[in-house]
Amino acid sequence: MEKLLLVNFEKDPDSIYVGFEPQVFDDTLNGTGHLIIGWRTDKKIDVYHQKSLKLDTSKYSIVGAGLNKMIPVDMEKAFYEVNDFGVQAHYKFRDMLEREVEISISEKNQRKRKPFGLLAPMGDAATNPASLPMVLLHDFYFVRKNETEIKFSINDKSHKLDNLPMRMD
Q: What is the pTM of this model?
């Protein structure tokens, strides 16, 4: 996995989803493209992915309460990079109910980022895993709220993203 972004809205949930997790791949095993994990209110996940990816459904049994559906989609927008100003990401696709999902984040913070390595906690995200993976995130950092434009909506209904319980920077 080249990149990962967590978009949590548990405090302002959708009827189906409480979070999305865009991921970017570029390797011989998975192929090249974007996928978005939809974290559901029932603790299962839906995996929306570009058709260019070759995914193994068994790898998703360790996530949440397991895989609900894996859905190949045409993403109208699928862009994610991290530059000197921070995260620049834009995703637009239709979910399994044909609702338009749009995630747009544009950081414009000129302060230098200070990424670090993080051993990601899996916690209760996996309810019945076949294994307990250790996930090391290289060059991890948080999206900074100051000087950042965020648009997130499902079916033209905006949702407020969750805040961290502590201040950073």
A: 0.91
pLDDT, tens digit, for every residue of 6-16? 999 999 999 99
Residue 121 corresponds to which amino acid?
P
In which residue are the tokens 């895993």 written?
129
What CA–CA distance (Å, rounded) separates 24 from 72?
15
Tokens 């895989």 -> residue? 67
Give, in order, the Cα–Cα distances in Å from 77 to each of 2, 73, 133.
18, 11, 31
Of 21, 86, 8, the closest CA to residue 49 belongs to 21
Identity (one letter) of the amino acid at 40? R
**Which tens digit of pLDDT belongs to each residue from 129-166?**
666 677 788 888 888 888 999 999 999 999 999 987 77
**72, 59 Cβ separation under 8 angstroms:** no
Torsion angles phi and psi, residue 59, rounded to 5: -70, -15
Asked whether 90 and 103 are in contact (CB, 8 A), the reply is yes
